[in-house]
Write a structure and sequence with these properties.
With about 270 residues, the chain is α+β, with helices and mostly antiparallel strands. It has one domain. It has helices at about 1-10, 15-25, 50-60, 65-80, 90-100, 105-120, 175-180, 200-205, 220-230, 235-245, and strands at about 25, 125-130, 140-150, 155-160, 165-170, 185-190, 210-215, 250-255. It has an eight-stranded mixed sheet. β4 (about 155-160) and β5 form a beta hairpin. The longest helix has 15 residues, at about 65-80. The radius of gyration is 18 Å and the shape is globular. InterPro entries: Papain-like_cys_pep_sf, Transglutaminase-like.
Length: about 270
């Protein structure tokens, strides 16, 4: 138990947060990220079989034709069957099993498993993180997704853990992440699950001028699954991620709207 507490404290310590972003981050632009998506490194053939089993349950009665409708149905099923809890840091199929069994799952866990469901349903998807610049440890961070709608010809942000889509005040077309973060707060959100009782985190990350998104790029799901299963809790999970970084196969954080170096102006107190 003591080792688990120490490991958790290290994972949450600002120094580790600082180090991870310093190693993995790079500045980018909106245009340069246009074709960057999770599907590029992750094909249907590498998605674990358990995702296909659950996918049959998700679309047991009905499968919409439009990409946004399919994505919402996936997200809705996940929200109805996953109550959430602690962060997992498990291989993707093990994380999905744990989440369905009620053993935890935070926003980043939800975003990562959502990626795999999108892949097997022929939906282009990408995962975003949201952080505060300069970094402030009381906010932590948030994870969300975008899917590419062929019908709309654009990316659409879908926050699975919060069960929301975004719109302009006078328009019912769902917005992209860039539209949300460049609209100066003149957008609204709507839940596709149930009424939101506490919108504090939504306000912190989508209406806060200090919040900025970064794309989680080049994430190879099968590679991380392999090493996370091989590790089997022998070492803290950040050792696994650091090893993959050392062999040159790590994911990257790409900042299109703000210089990532400005996030490091904080105190370790």
């Amino acid at each position: 138990m003591t080792l688990k507490k120490i490991t958790w404290a290290l994972r949450r310590h600002p120094l580790l947060y600082y180090t991870r972003f310093w190693l993995l981050s790079k500045n980018s632009t909106i245009n340069r990220l246009d074709k960057d998506c999770y599907n590029r490194e992750n094909s249907k053939t590498v998605v674990p079989e358990f995702f296909y089993e659950i996918n049959k349950k998700i679309f047991e009665h009905y499968k919409p034709e439009k990409d946004v409708d399919k994505a919402v149905l996936i997200a809705l099923w996940l929200r109805k069957h996953i109550k959430g809890g602690r962060g997992l840091s498990l291989a993707s199929d093990e994380a999905l099993k744990a989440m369905i069994n009620g053993d935890g799952g935070v926003c980043s866990d939800m975003s990562q498993i959502f990626n795999n469901f999108c892949v097997i349903n022929d939906i282009k998807v990408r995962e975003w993180g949201i952080t505060i610049v300069p970094f402030n440890k009381k906010y932590g961070g948030h994870a969300t997704n975008e899917i590419f709608s062929k019908e709309l010809g654009k990316w659409v942000i879908i926050d699975v853990s919060k069960s929301i889509l975004f719109y302009y005040e006078d328009n019912n077309e769902p917005l992209s992440l860039f539209q949300v973060f460049t609209s100066n707060g003149s957008h609204r959100y709507s839940s596709f699950y149930k009424e939101i009782e506490d919108n504090t985190q939504i306000l912190n990350y989508y209406y806060n001028k200090r919040a900025t998104p970064f794309l989680i790029s080049s994430y190879r799901n099968s590679l991380y699954d392999k090493y996370l299963k091989k590790n089997n809790s022998k070492y803290p999970v950040f050792f696994v991620h650091f090893y993959i970084y050392l062999i040159g196969k790590s994911y990257k954080y790409k900042f299109p709207l703000r210089d990532y170096r400005k996030m490091f102006r904080f105190s370790f107190s």
